[in-house]
Amino acid sequence: MFDKKVTIFPERVNNQCFDNCSIPDRRAGFVRQKRGFMKEKKRDRRVSRTRRLMHEALMALIVEKGYEAITVQDILDRADVGRSTFYAHYQDKDELLLSSFEHLRTLFEEQQQALLAARQTGRNPELNIVLELFRHTGEHHRLYKAIAGKQSGEMIMKYLHRYLYTLLIGPHTEMMKERVTPPVPVEVITHHLVSSLLSLITWWLDNNMPYPPEKMDEIFRILSTPTLEAAFGRKMEEKIMSEYAAGSVMAFYSQFIDRGCCPGK
Amino acid sequence: MFDKKVTIFPERVNNQCFDNCSIPDRRAGFVRQKRGFMKEKKRDRRVSRTRRLMHEALMALIVEKGYEAITVQDILDRADVGRSTFYAHYQDKDELLLSSFEHLRTLFEEQQQALLAARQTGRNPELNIVLELFRHTGEHHRLYKAIAGKQSGEMIMKYLHRYLYTLLIGPHTEMMKERVTPPVPVEVITHHLVSSLLSLITWWLDNNMPYPPEKMDEIFRILSTPTLEAAFGRKMEEKIMSEYAAGSVMAFYSQFIDRGCCPGK
DNA sequence: TTTTATATCATACACTGTGTTCGATAAAAA
DNA sequence: TTTTTATCGAACACAGTGTATGATATAAAA
User: Fold this and answer.
1) CA A197 to CA A191: how far, in whole Å?
2) Quick one: chain B helix, strand, coil %, rounded to 5?
3) Nucleic acid strand C within 7 Å of A73 CB
4) pLDDT of B115
């Protein structure tokens, strides 16, 4: 199933947005129109409509039967879209799913920028972001379970892993500079921290959320703080960790859910 | 691919050994012979031969192209075995793979018993078992990478996770008794510890083992010890952890490798 | 509006891989 | 030897994938 290489962060292959972006069209007679330099083309309404329908169908089906069990035909039937149309847009269902996440990532990065700017003006309300993450996950556990739980493929988790890793490795390297001889390579610490958070979320979902989000937030801190202290060799400021690590996941997940799982809507 | 439920510890469905055990035969005309009460039947030589060939073929192919890419036909060709014969023994290739691990688990448990007995007599040589684990993994990294790395399915990792979890949850619960109010539920600690170890192994393999086993051993201790101290609320004896956690993996892996990957041999 | 461009549709097709069936044959056990 | 049964091989139905093509519908451009 996942024999082919799963490129987590491709070079913006199918670019992020569904309404206003270039379409890598695979169909025989189709030619990429590209007259005009840097002239932003308005997308054909049919394109965004089709993509939106397919994304909606995929998301609905994921909740219903889990990602792995979905066939391309299922998506076609649900979206009421022709077979060749599907393959004109995406290579396979993996690419369709990744496309959603690519889109969300762009949205998230923009929001992150806004947050960073707001933070610099001074008054930020000091959220407990890990807690919000678990609350949110719990509220939409059906979908989360479908995409992150045991029954689903590992692609999404790998994507998230890579995503968080990329986000964290910079700050971690920065922190590490204060140490002369790091006992643990920063790459390993980062990998370890991300694995811990994701495995905690997965555990929580797979076990039907036996504890409230508050408890999970506490657990995450108890488990990760001493390790980070030991690895970095100094007291961690929770703010830094929250901002870069859990905050990202939360915002990422939030957008995925809040927009009704259909980016083009 | 992995739509169906992956039963990690089935009720001894295909029972452990290949030469001297009952065969759950799926074929139409086949009837389970069962005359005689508790009378251990010698297995038909053809059965053990066939199974051995199929296991050998699977293991060779895993190293060559990774588990996911293998088709049943590949196994058939390599093992020089008929199609119907394969399905007379196993439901699919997942079951064939699990069968290997089930077998190894039995062997491992017997050896564990022997070790435990030897330990009680007094003189044990105090191995650093985590270190041995990494050394061993490194020596056979091609196979390990194929079964535990990025390119392979998650089935084996889930199996190992479940296995180690089962092994650890008992001792952990015991240790937890000394605490009045555990800040972190023992199930979560155990899940976390196992995830950490496996993610560390995976990272090491996926990054072509950039550090020597000695370093990985050190890293594992640095990362896991403070967390366990925080969670259990008291100083951990390394002996306990080594014996129950990493020792299991090492022995488990060792047998898998040492026996040439073909249990029936 | 008319013209042009192109996205979509329906259908058909080749292909890969799965899992089953069944009679004939070979090999092991009794 | 006789009986039992594991294996073979070939055929088959089935599900799913990804491609190709001409006709049609619809959007954009003139």
Assistant:
1) 10
2) 65, 0, 35
3) no
4) 57
In the three-class reduction of DSSP (H, G, I as helix; E, B as strand; rest coil), residue A83 is classed as helix
CA-wise closest residue to A27 among A85, A81, A99 = A85
Q: Has residue B156 got a pLDDT over 50?
A: yes
| C-alpha B259 chain-centroid distance | 14
Nearest by CB to A222, from B68, B184, B211: name it.
B184
Residue B3 has pLDDT above 70, yes or no: no
SS3 content of chain A, % helix, strand, coil (to 5): 65, 0, 35
How distant is C1' of C6 from CA of A159, in Å? 34
| A32: CB within 7 A of chain C nucleic strand | no
* Contact: A227, B231; criterion CB under 8 Å: no
Using DSSP's 3-state secondary structure scheme, residue B126 falls into coil
Assess whether A265 (CB) lies less than 7 A from strand D: no
Closest partner residue to A196 (CB to CB) among B68, B196, B211 is B196
A22-54 burial code (b ≥16 CB/10 A, e <16): bbeeeeeeeeeeeeeeeeeeebeeebbebbbbb
Contacts of residue A39, defined as CB under 8 A and 6 or more positions apart, other chains included, come to: none
Cross-chain Cβ contact A68/B226 below 8 Å: no
Average pLDDT, 10 consecutive residues per value, chain A (265 residues)? 35 38 41 38 86 93 88 96 96 90 70 62 50 69 69 70 79 73 83 88 89 88 82 56 49 45 34
Tokens matching residue B30:
């086949």
Q: 10 Å Cβ neighbour count for A155?
A: 19
Extents of the domains making up chain A: 125-258
Residues of A in contact with B1 (CB under 8 A): 1-2, 68
CA B212 → C1' D19, Å? 49
Chain C bases under 7 Å from protein CB? 5-12, 16-23, 27-30
CB contact under 8 A, A226 and B223: no
